[in-house]
Amino acid sequence: MRTYKVETEDLSEKVYKNIKEMILRRELVPGQKLTQEDMAKLLGVSRTPLLAAFSKLEKEWLVESRPRRGFYIRELNKEDELNLFDIRLRLEPLGARRAAENGSEQDKKRLVRMLDAVPDFNCMENRSAFNDHDYHFHGLVMGMTGNRMLEMMLTSYNIISLSNQDEIHIDCSKSIEGHRKIAQAIAEGKPDEAEEAMRQHIQIGLDRIREQRS
Q: Looking at residue 131, which CATH number applies to its domain?
């Protein structure tokens, strides 16, 4: 596990950001118990800022408190996963449309460059890198919409990251192919094509969850 350094200024916020990064990078995995002693030692802090960080992460659905057992990285059930993709299927196609309509030329070029820089992922060997790419790609698209409320709805509860908990079943190549189609439509300013490409991309994830959990 990589080394995380926490300074004394704004300690609770720094602890929160460090733990959140570890969760998003899958250095802390769904279902894992967050032992206060171990986390305090890892980050070099006392329990007070640690508990404050756990509480904030619980509100973002990344951590859950289990009575008399402590804090754990949230592990989604089938209903949770289906609900997340249901939300994404309704909101992200709209986001892709708005990104094609409202995104700046600079952001559109940045989106294309992001895909140009993506290697051919071997999902089994580069899962963390793929998750990082996926998180930032969808976040950038939503950031291009010009609709702050839409962006906040998707990011405040880490919907994109949480919906990748079944990561071992994700076809990275197919997912990145979908990203390329979305990016191209957005870059070319084609709202209808961007919306449909995103809809198809999210539908694949929804179908995958339904198939696995049936």
A: 1.20.120.530
**d(C-alpha 151, C-alpha 103), whole Å:** 13
Q: What is the phi-psi region of residue 46: left when phi exceeds 0, alpha when psi lies from -120 to 50, beta otherwise?
A: beta
Place of tokens 């949770």: 80
CATH code of the domain containing 69: 1.10.10.10
> pLDDT tens across 128-150, in order?
778 888 888 999 999 999 999 99
Give the model's pLDDT for residue 124: 62
Q: For residue 146, what are the domain limits?
A: 78-213
Of 28, 120, 30, residue with least CA distance to 76:
30
3 in a structural domain: no
pLDDT digits (tens, 9 = 90+) for 90-131: 999 999 999 999 999 999 999 999 998 887 666 666 777 788
Dihedrals phi, psi of 33, to nearest 5 degrees: -80, 135
With beta carbons less than 8 A apart as the criterion, state whether 207 and 82 touch: no
Asked if residue 151 belongs to a domain, the reply is: yes
CA triplet 67, 69, 73: central angle to 5 degrees? Answer: 95
